[in-house]
Design goal:
five-stranded parallel beta sheet, globular, 16% strand, 135 residues, single chain, alpha/beta
């Protein structure tokens, strides 16, 4: 079956850690290393399905600080594309080390559904996904 989760983070260690946690929860995922690649992946998956049962991603874990196109810019672009029905709705979970209120508020203003802080743990991921995927 198709991965339900997309990880967007420029740090390979963070991607590996989150992939390991998700795999431990029997959740398949894809990953990309910047906002531009995220947008392209969403557009490609919306147009070119991998199989007849292919479904859109249910969740994106979005890093805040990335080169070229940061998390806020990426979330803003995803919301614009959703408004034009070019990509489907999905939950976007910020996954950041930035805990300053202004940083988190700006991330939510872009359209986040939830936000968790690094370092992430299996319990933290399980709790945040409980209502979305683990029903």
């Amino acid at each position: 079956s198709c991965p339900k989760v997309l990880i967007v983070d420029d740090n390979p260690f963070n991607v590996m850690a989150l992939e390991s946690i998700l795999n431990g929860l029997d959740i398949q995922c894809d990953s990309v290393y910047n906002g531009y690649a995220c947008i392209q992946k969403l557009l490609d998956r919306h147009v070119k399905t991998c199989c007849s049962n292919c479904k859109p991603y249910s969740v994106i874990f979005m890093d805040r600080e990335m080169p070229e196109m940061d998390g806020i810019e990426t979330v803003t672009e995803i919301k614009r594309l959703q408004g034009e029905n070019l990509v489907p709705d999905m939950k976007i979970i910020g996954c950041t080390a930035h805990k300053a209120k202004e940083e988190v508020d700006a991330f939510f203003a872009a359209g986040l559904d939830e936000c968790i802080f690094k370092p992430v743990s299996k319990g933290m991921i399980k709790d945040i996904l409980k209502e979305i995927l683990l029903k």
